[in-house]
């Protein structure tokens, strides 16, 4: 009996040690967010924070209030405010916490099972007691843990990508809002000039020095100018509100001030001949697709490991038969699933299909990344050329024409309305430059994002059917 118990006791000790080791898996202090914050800092120079307590939320609110109080609010400060204060982004970080919970769970062995059978006939009893452990979980635990590690790393990259996407959207919203305010100010000046011209035309018509048709033309120009101001003001409100939503501001915080004009156009656009290779090395969605494929490959190995037997339980047992005072018979119990009907071929076939799908998804992501970065870089260069053409050619040319017409007017060679008509052409050129400058800075922000990735570029493989829990029979 002593030798028998010794043989039984050894595996029990092994199980107990394994359970104690599995119980050591624990949560990290920051929920794995340090890696996300570091990725964001390297790519944007901005600080990312995950508010998981009232104290942390208070620190973030104080930092946001300090940034918003700056007059005016610059593009970099606006991006920092959005990263810290956007509640939708904070909500997305919960996915990281869920992924870490799955990782911790994968590092812990399942609880032992205790079963008991009791029957009585008169003074005769039959009592069976067994304490069993899932032996097969020892085989699958390393594979399952590796799968969850890769999924957690994928969740970290996805969280970083969400932050960087928000940063890009905020920068573009800031550019649009500043350009909209600048356009409104300029068009209001145009409206004032048109109003003066319309009033002059009215007076000259009354004096008999101007025809009704000529006055109507000036009135039409003023009406168009007023309509353009109304449309610009509507666009300005919409642009500012979009920026406010991205910043996560409300109440007094929404009364931030923006600069009066956009940054000047750089003299030269960036020359990046090797941009496709750089994009494949840097884009987070490409790296995430690779991680997904590796995780599915690991999962396929797990599916094969559990193909024939996916439940094997072992543990000590004791049985009493007879009088209640009789001694227990001691032994052990083994429970396993017999592959009589299901040999696991369907599960393995499905895992292989998922793996092939993951390979194709990764290839698609890489191909799309090349195309997107080419497209955005081309748009960036063209936008720079257009804005530069407006700045260096069209606007100066209109200005010279206006100066010549002023001289001609002073020499009484042309009338005031000829001067006003020429000013309308100058207005169109200035408006064109403002729009071209806005489009360039938006294209520059798009290029930055194209070098990082695109949220939703890959739906990812369907991994739920081959999770470690399902494969191990839990």
Commentary on this structure:
This protein has 474 residues and is of the alpha+beta class. It has a domain at 263-307 and 349-474: Outer membrane efflux proteins (OEP). Helices cover 68% and strands 8% of the residues. It contains 13 helices and four strands. Strands 1-2-3-4 form a four-stranded antiparallel beta sheet. α9 (275-282) crosses α11 and α11 runs antiparallel to α12. The radius of gyration is 36 Å and the shape is elongated. The model is unreliable at 1-23, 307-312 and 455-474 (pLDDT under 50).
Entry summary:
By secondary structure, the chain is α+β, with helices and mostly antiparallel strands. The protein is built from 13 helices and four strands. The protein has a domain at 263-307 and 349-474: Up-down Bundle (Outer membrane efflux proteins (OEP)), CATH 1.20.1600.
């Amino acid at each position: 009996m002593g030798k028998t118990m010794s043989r039984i006791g050894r595996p029990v000790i092994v199980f107990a040690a394994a359970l104690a080791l599995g119980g050591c898996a624990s949560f990290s202090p920051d929920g794995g967010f340090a890696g996300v914050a570091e990725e964001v800092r390297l790519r944007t120079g901005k600080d990312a924070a995950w508010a998981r307590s009232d104290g942390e939320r208070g620190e973030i609110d104080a930092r946001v209030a300090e940034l918003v109080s700056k007059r005016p609010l610059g593009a970099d400060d606006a991006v920092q405010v959005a990263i810290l204060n956007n509640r939708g982004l904070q909500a997305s970080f919960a996915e990281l916490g869920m992924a870490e919970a799955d990782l911790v769970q994968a590092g812990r062995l399942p609880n032992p099972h205790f079963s008991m059978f009791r029957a009585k006939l008169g003074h005769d009893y039959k009592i069976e007691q067994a304490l069993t452990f899932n032996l097969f979980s020892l085989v699958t635990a390393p594979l399952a843990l590796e799968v969850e590690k890769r999924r957690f790393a994928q969740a970290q990259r996805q969280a970083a990508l969400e932050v960087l996407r928000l940063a890009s959207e905020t920068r573009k919203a800031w550019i649009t809002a500043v350009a909209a305010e600048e356009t409104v100010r300029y068009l209001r000046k145009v409206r004032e000039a048109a109003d003066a011209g319309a009033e002059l035309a009215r007076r000259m018509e009354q004096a008999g020095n101007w025809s009704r048709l000529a006055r109507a033309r000036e009135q039409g120009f003023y009406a168009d100018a007023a309509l353009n101001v109304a449309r610009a003001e509507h666009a300005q409100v919409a642009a500012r509100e979009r920026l406010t939503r991205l910043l996560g501001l409300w109440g007094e915080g929404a009364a931030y001030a923006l600069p009066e004009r956009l940054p000047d156009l750089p003299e030269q656009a960036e020359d990046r001949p090797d941009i496709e290779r750089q994009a494949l090395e840097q884009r987070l969605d490409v790296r995430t697709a690779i991680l997904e494929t590796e995780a599915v490959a690991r999962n396929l190995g797990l599916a094969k490991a559990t193909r024939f037997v996916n439940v094997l339980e072992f543990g000590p047992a004791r049985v009493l038969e007879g009088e209640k005072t009789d001694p227990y018979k001691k032994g052990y119990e083994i429970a396993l699933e017999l592959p009589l009907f299901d040999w696991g071929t369907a599960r393995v076939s499905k895992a292989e299909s998922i793996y092939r799908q993951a390979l194709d998804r990764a290839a698609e992501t890489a191909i799309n990344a090349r195309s997107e970065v080419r497209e955005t870089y081309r748009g960036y260069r063209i936008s720079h050329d257009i804005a530069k053409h407006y700045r260096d050619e069209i606007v100066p040319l209109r200005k010279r024409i206006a100066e010549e017409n002023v001289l001609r007017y002073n020499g009484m060679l042309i009338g005031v309305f000829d001067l006003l008509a020429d000013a309308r052409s100058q207005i169109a050129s200035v408006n064109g430059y403002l729009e071209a400058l806005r489009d360039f800075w938006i294209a520059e922000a798009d290029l930055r994002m194209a070098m990082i990735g695109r949220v939703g570029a890959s739906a990812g493989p369907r991994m739920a059917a081959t999770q470690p829990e399902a494969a191990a029979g839990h």
